[in-house]
Amino acid sequence: MKLKAFSTFASLLLILLLAQCTSDKASQQQFSPDEEKVYLDKGKAIAAATFTTLSGQLTAALEKEGVAGAVRYCNLAAMPLLDSLSKANNATIRRTSGKPRNPLDAPTEWEAELLSAFQLEASKGEQPMPRLKLLDEKKVAFAAPIMLQPLCTKCHGAVGTDIAEGDYAVIKELYPQDQAVGYKPGELRGMWSITFER
Hints:
It contains five helices and four strands, in the order ααβαββααβ. By secondary structure, it is of the alpha+beta class. A hairpin with a 2-residue loop joins β2 and β3. The radius of gyration is 22 Å and the shape is globular. 57% of the residues lie in helices and 16% in strands. It has one domain. The chain has a four-stranded antiparallel β-sheet with strand order 1-4-3-2. α2 crosses α5.
């Protein structure tokens, strides 16, 4: 009787393990080469266009009103601009970072996972490369690293050295929970997170 009960238990355990393996394989579906190229190309194009638009607006505000004006512009316009570009591209476009300026830009679980992978590559002296992640059967995510450009140190560099104390006071007024300082040019600042409906 004990042997029969053990056999039943072992069979049930085996069924559960097989079901888990099947579930894991389903969640690790790979893209076809054509599909992968389409999403990578589309993600790169959207990230580049978004960066060009946002950095162009920020540079204009910086030249006209200095760092404090650029920070105020970013505070008012960055989110609406990303929303507008998201609608135009039929995607969800975000910037995220492990050290966000705006708490709304804190990474989700899957974004944190990819940020860690990018950080690991960067720490080895490698250039992090864009990648895709299948979030579920209907959603594909594109992620690309954001490396800090020299001009960006005026808002994201070292306080008191790259960022004037007065300018940082404006940053802290607009973003009381700011963590996005202390970066050097070429360091990983965060990543583009673009989600598509499949």
